[in-house]
Write a structure and sequence with these properties.
This protein has 214 residues and is an alpha/beta fold. The N and C termini lie far apart (46 Å). The longest helix has 22 residues. Strand 1, helix 4 and strand 2 form a beta-alpha-beta unit. Helix content is 43%, strand content 9%. The radius of gyration is 18 Å and the shape is globular. The protein has one domain.
C-alpha cells in the first residue's frame, strides 16, 4: 500500500479558520471539506466566462479534455485531506497495473467536473453528468470513498452511483483514507479495522432507519 502519500491541506484549513474568526458564531462554520474548496478555490477560479462561468476541469483542460478512468463517489462533507490522500493512494496502487504513472490516472469528481456556477443535472438520470461519466466507455468503475462515519452511504446520489455501478457491471472499490480496502499491499489489520468501523456504522444506520417515529 502507498503509505508514503499524505495530504495536509494547510492553506484550506487556514482559510476556514480565518473565515470562522471573521464571521463570529456563524450558523454553518467553514470546515476543511469540498464545500469550502468550492467556495474558496473552485468558484473564484471559474467565474469567467460570464455570466455562467465554467467547470474547473474545463478551466484546466479545455484544449485537451481528459477521459474518465475512475469515478469518485463521496460525500462533500468528508475531510478534504483524507479524501485526496485516499485517492492518491488508490492511484499509486492501481496505475502501475495499467502500465502508467500514477500522476496520469484520471478521476471524475463532480465538484471539479461540473460547472458549480450553473449545475446542469439534465432532464433524467440518464442525462445527468453522473450517469454520463460512469457509463462512459473508458471508465473502469467507481471508487467509493468512505470516512470513519461512512457519511457517503447517507447521500442519495452515492447510493444511486453504487446501484448504477453494478447495473453497468463496472468495477467497485471501497476506498479509505489509507487507500483501497482490498489490494495486495493491504495488511489484514488494516482491512479488519476498517471493515469493523464500516460494519458498526452500517448497523447503526440500519437501526436508525427502522426506529419508530417519536
Amino acid at each position: 500500500m502507498a503509505k508514503e502519500v499524505f495530504c495536509f491541506p494547510m492553506k484550506l484549513a487556514e482559510m476556514c479558520l480565518q473565515w470562522n474568526l471573521s464571521h463570529g458564531k456563524a450558523q454553518y462554520p467553514r470546515e476543511s471539506n469540498l464545500y469550502s474548496v468550492n467556495e474558496f478555490f473552485i468558484k473564484p477560479a471559474t467565474k469567467e466566462p460570464e455570466p455562467d462561468g465554467q467547470s474547473y476541469a474545463e478551466h484546466l483542460n479545455r484544449d485537451s479534455p481528459l477521459k474518465t478512468e475512475f469515478f469518485m463517489s463521496h460525500h462533500w462533507g468528508e475531510d478534504f485531506g483524507e479524501l485526496i490522500q485516499g485517492v492518491l493512494r488508490h492511484a499509486k496502487v492501481t496505475a502501475p497495473l495499467q502500465g502508467k504513472a500514477w500522476q496520469n490516472q484520471v478521476y471524475w469528481c463532480c465538484a471539479f467536473a461540473n460547472n458549480q456556477h450553473s449545475v446542469n443535472l439534465g432532464q433524467s438520470l440518464e442525462e445527468s453528468p453522473f450517469y454520463q461519466a460512469l457509463s462512459s466507455k473508458g471508465c473502469f468503475g467507481i471508487i467509493l470513498n468512505l470516512n470513519q462515519s461512512v457519511t457517503a452511504l447517507q447521500r442519495i446520489w452515492c447510493i444511486y452511483e453504487i446501484y448504477l455501478t453494478f447495473k453497468l457491471r463496472k468495477s467497485f472499490v471501497i476506498n479509505t483514507p489509507q487507500g483501497p480496502l482490498f489490494d495486495e499491499g493491504s495488511t489484514s489489520r488494516h482491512q479488519s479495522v476498517w471493515m469493523g468501523i464500516y460494519f458498526d456504522c452500517f448497523i447503526t444506520l440500519m437501526c436508525y432507519r427502522h426506529l419508530p417515529a417519536a
